[in-house]
Amino acid sequence: MTGQNGYIALMNTMCDMTKFVVVVPVPDETSATLASHFMQHVLLKFGMCHLVVIDYGSPFKGSYVAMCQALNLNYDVLAKRNHKELSVEHFHRFLNKSVTIAAKERGTNDIFVLASIAAVYAWNSVPIDGTDIIRSVPTISRSLNLPLDINLNTVPKLIQNNAQAHWTTLILLTLVVILLPLSLRFLSRIVEPLMLSVSITQKTLLF
Fold first, then answer.
1. Residue 8, SS3?
2. How far apart are CA 101 and CA 124, in angstroms?
């Protein structure tokens, strides 16, 4: 299956803790291509990973192992047919259903990359299993809205005049300089009794 831009496969990576997924379209399945795309689209965007877990049954297992060795990454290959321990299998079932529905609606498989990216957005917009924390929040520090409601908020007014922007910034900085000492004094009056209270409580508990 080849996409509109010549991509033939998807490299799917999942965070084991949050189940956040990153899908990277690749033009071929060689270890050199996988290493280049993994470094560019995963590691350099989301940070280094402690361990890469590879499915034994993946047709790209050898390429993934070579990729990890080339990038000097720790990796582990799951035991044969041990799909229960591979959480990304759950995502693959969701992805296959989503792409199948999109392909039937469009009448072509060429849109598998776009359909996959849309499915990943939906996957990352739901809470982590057993929590109310959206998967995208710990990863990219923002929640992903679904559906894509882009008209909910008013568009901020752009400042075309550089002088106006300069004076606005200067006024804000002045307010910060004036209000910050006052805020610190106010907080110190609140925090000091609390610190005393905690200290007394601790001594009471200890003795």
1. coil
2. 19
Closest among 45, 37, 46 to 7, alpha carbons compared: 37
Strand segments (E) across the chain:
9-14, 21-26, 52-54, 75-77
- Please say whether the beta carbons of 58 and 65 come within 8 A: no
For 147-187, the pLDDT digits (tens) are 766 666 666 676 666 666 667 777 877 877 777 776 666 55
Pair 81, 57: CB distance under 8 Å: yes
Task: Please give the domain boundaries of the chain with CATH numbers for all domains.
Answer: 9-140 (3.30.420.10), 154-207 (no CATH)
The C-alpha angle with vertex 193 and arms to 189 and 195, in degrees rounded to 5, equals 110
Pairwise CA distance, residues 123 & 103, whole Å: 18
Tens-digit pLDDT profile for residues 14-41: 988 889 999 999 998 899 999 999 999 9
